[in-house]
Amino acid sequence: MCLQELLFVIIWNTDKECNRRRIEMKIILDPGHGRYGNPYPPQKGFYEGTQMWVLANYLKEELEKYGFDVVSTRPDINDMPSLYARGALAKGASLLLSLHSNAPQSALDTKPTGSVVYYSLEDESNKVLADMIGNKVSEVMSHYYRGSMIKVSPKGDDYNGVIRSAVKNGCTRALLVEHGFHTNLKDSEFLISNSKLQKLAAAEAGIIAEYFGFNRNKEGEAMFRTLRYGMAGEDVEFVQKFLALHGYYTGPIDSSFGPGQGFLNAVKSFQKAEGLTADGVIDSASRAKIFEIILTGSITDSAQMEELMSKVSKMEIELKKYVEYFRLQTELRMGIEMQIQE
């Protein structure tokens, strides 16, 4: 393999590919209820429907910075579509995120606090993203995470109408986030602050970007992440193609780390065959082994593997410096090809 081919392989999940793929990835944001839906008892004049609309607008702006195509179910604050209409917008989307704040049975009960995330019973792998979002929301709002949950209707399907509709329209990655309790004084004080909602939106967008493989460091450079069951992104697709090429994986190349297509077992089989910890997690050791196989074939000596892992880490750092160069070169080449065709 020549150096150019190697560079292409290692920067698969950096800007050159991400820029194109991100544009194709659509996220639906659903600010719950209507403008005056569910008043905040401790904060007169504030409503769940209004504050979640404000949060959705901040979140849309943050997600678009990563290149996601973001659509709101309530573009105007006065919009109040049906639950089915909201979910129907998720057709062809990678994620539907319904934004809410919680309340106990009695609005006079001000003690309950904490966030919770509901996900569809159709796809257990969504618990990974639900946990990531829920823990981050609770961290930013300074309360505890009540957990990621499935809520089942008497009919045996998803209880939440917007999730049920999204699933019916082909989007099984549908989550409903309860951002604390608007009956709680501390939680409601957070939710009526625009600056705090902006901070929350930035944190949620960062988690979603990380989940889909668009994580960035403080300098704005692409980062390599550890891949686990339930994640998705172009880096997952690369490993799927690598394992398929080497006979470990026969399922679809769909950029998703499960469920149902056998990718988790394929990763474990590869790790076991290569003397790695067969835990199904693509970490730095597994990534180093993949790069090593691409380069030279198989290495069994542990000292050599350690040395290679160190070299791979240094190589990743150096290659990030060339991302912009490769992007510009690609644009230049495409421009030349278009002129030739004309």
Side by side, the strands of the main sheet go: 2-1-3-6-4-5
The structural domain count equals: 2
Helix content: 40-55%
Average pLDDT for all residues: 82
Q: Helix and strand layout, with pairings?
A:
Elements lengths: L2 H8 L4 H10 L1 E6 L16 H18 L3 E4 L10 H6 L6 E8 L12 E5 L6 H16 L3 E5 L11 H8 L5 E8 L3 H7 L2 H18 L22 H12 L17 H11 L10 H12 L6 H19 L2 H19 L1
Helix pairs in contact: 3-8, 5-8, 11-12
Describe this structure in words.
By secondary structure, the protein is α/β, with parallel strands linked by helices. The chain has two domains: 3-14 and 223-341, Muramoyl-pentapeptide Carboxypeptidase, domain 1 (Orthogonal Bundle), CATH 1.10.101; 26-211, Aminopeptidase, CATH 3.40.630. 48% of the residues lie in helices and 11% in strands. The two termini are 33 Å apart.
